[in-house]
């Protein structure tokens, strides 16, 4: 687990794109007075695959034990994409032991009206088109990747399937979200077409008292496309909750 900065503790949970998708934002948080802890989910970032862990709920229960560490007392939990799903499950599994909850274009909710795109059927170009406000700036060129980079990317994909399943949803989650009692901020990129803002509103509506914000000129990963706007929202949210 990487640790950066000093100040208010933050547990930052990455999504299916792996730890690189939040590493830069962790540095920005650290520079703004947050002590940021960024774990790597088993199977991601080249780490050994999950052996007995086969669900987001199970992974959240593992992370709940981290909250016994004094450094993570009352930590704000921020999760991106599947990391947002993990964060929501963590707020339930560790009720009374987490600080505020921040979900960034989270998955996990079963929505008949606004289903998550079928990630596992998409090409890399299609993923870029659906994920970013500016897809051309974030396309992945497989021919330019090293064998190690390809191995890590394949491991990320396989682990995402193990944890989230093909649907990337748990039918029981929506009803259970009503038990979340910490302040919650739900943030969505306006251009996210993998998981639409309408899905985000549905997520926020399921969490008592949750605040919902849409960030312009950002897609599924606002921490990459609009980090300054996201930082501003987090600081305002933290001030309102203090």
How would you describe this protein?
With 242 residues, the protein is an alpha/beta fold. The chain is built from nine helices and nine strands. The protein has a seven-stranded mixed β-sheet with strand order 1-3-2-4-5-8-9, sandwiched between helices. It has a two-stranded parallel sheet with strand order 6-7. The longest helix has 18 residues.
List keywords for this structure.
single chain; two-stranded parallel ribbon; alpha/beta; 16% strand
For the largest beta sheet, what order do the strands appear in spatially?
A: 1-3-2-4-5-8-9
Helix content: 25-40%
State the separation between the terminal residues, measured CA to CA.
27 Å
Based on Cα principal axes, name the global outline.
Answer: globular
Estimate what percentage of residues fall within beta strands.
Answer: 15-25%
The major beta sheet can be summarized as: 7 strands, mixed
The helix/strand order is EEHEHEHEEHHEHEHEHH
β-strand number: 9
Count the helices. How many? 9
- Poorly predicted parts: none
Q: Which structural category do the helix and sheet elements fall into?
A: alpha/beta
Radius of gyration: 16 Å
Overall mean pLDDT stands at: 94
């Amino acid at each position: 687990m990487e640790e950066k900065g000093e100040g208010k503790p933050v547990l930052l949970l990455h999504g299916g794109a792996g730890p690189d998708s939040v590493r830069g934002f962790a540095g920005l948080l650290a520079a703004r007075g947050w002590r940021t802890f960024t774990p790597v989910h088993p199977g991601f970032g080249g780490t050994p695959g999950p052996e007995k862990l086969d669900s987001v709920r199970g992974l959240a229960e593992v992370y709940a034990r981290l909250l016994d560490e004094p450094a993570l007392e009352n930590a704000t939990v921020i999760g991106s994409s599947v990391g947002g799903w993990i964060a929501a499950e963590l707020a339930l599994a560790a009720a009374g032991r987490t600080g505020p909850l921040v979900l960034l274009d989270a998955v996990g909710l079963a929505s008949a009206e606004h289903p998550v795109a079928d990630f596992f059927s998409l090409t890399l170009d299609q993923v870029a088109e659906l994920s970013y406000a500016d897809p051309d700036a974030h396309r992945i060129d497989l021919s330019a990747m090293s064998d190690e980079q390809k191995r890590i990317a394949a491991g990320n994909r396989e682990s995402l399937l193990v944890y989230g399943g093909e649907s990337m949803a748990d039918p029981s989650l929506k009803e259970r979200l009503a038990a979340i009692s910490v302040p919650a901020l739900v943030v969505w990129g306006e251009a996210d077409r993998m998981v639409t803002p309408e899905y985000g509103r549905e997520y926020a509506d399921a969490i008592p008292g949750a605040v919902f914000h849409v960030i312009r000129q950002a897609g599924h990963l606002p921490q990459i496309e609009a980090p300054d706007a996201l930082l501003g929202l987090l600081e305002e949210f933290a001030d309102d909750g203090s």
